[in-house]
Design goal:
The protein has helices at residues 12-21, 48-58, 93-109, 136-141; strands spanning 2-8, 29-30, 38-46, 66-77, 83-91, 122-127, 150-152, 154-163, 166-176. It has 180 residues and is of the alpha+beta class. The chain has a five-stranded antiparallel beta sheet with strand order 2-6-5-4-7. A four-stranded antiparallel beta sheet has the order 3-1-8-9, with helices on one face. α2 packs across α3 (93-109).
């Protein structure tokens, strides 16, 4: 089985900026440089044939390069209301949502189920266990996070491998965003 997702990889300067924000939340598992990405669509566990179909159909997605910027930060809660991740926001959201829909439609053409969750563009910075936190001070300190605009000109199909130290991500295929 292959655990796949489609994502955008921020440029090095943006990743370095995000890495500089990390720390100050007890028990948080901060992402490393190789883990920083903006998910367009989580595919999940699929067999080899389905993985090949997804890789092939993503080549049919056409979208212009994206000009984005960092925009604030936030957290996700688990089902009990405890923080389970902190993230950096990205804007503008409309072009990202449009690309997300195109990717989702392509994956459905490959025979998989459509995405059911609402799409919130973000870059996960840390994962939290039940004993991690508090995060309120960190969120307040970084609420005004912003950056100069940056361009993303490709999306990437990744395979995620879960291990003792967390997930590692291997790029499987890269798809230029050319607008053609």
């Amino acid at each position: 089985m292959h655990r796949l997702f489609v994502a955008l990889r921020p440029p090095r300067a943006i990743r370095e900026r995000l890495l500089g924000l990390m720390g100050g939340v007890p028990g948080a598992r901060w992402q490393d440089d190789a883990q920083l990405h903006l998910t367009l669509r989580f595919v999940g566990e699929v067999g080899t044939h389905a993985a090949e179909d997804v890789a092939a159909v993503l080549g049919s997605v056409h979208h212009a390069p994206l000009e984005l910027r960092l925009a604030g930060c936030g957290m996700f809660d688990d089902s009990r209301g405890k923080p389970n991740a902190v993230w950096a926001g990205v804007s503008p959201r409309d072009p990202l949502a449009a690309l997300h829909r195109k990717v989702d439609q392509a994956i459905v053409r490959a025979g998989l189920e459509p995405e059911r969750r609402a799409y919130l563009p973000h870059i996960t910075l840390a994962r939290m266990s039940g004993s991690a936190g508090p995060v309120d001070r960190w969120l307040a300190e970084h609420a005004a996070l912003t950056s100069e605009p940056f361009t993303i000109d490709a999306m990437v199909l990744y395979e995620s491998r879960l291990g003792h130290g967390g997930a590692s991500y291997e790029p499987i295929a890269r798809y230029p965003l050319t607008g053609i």
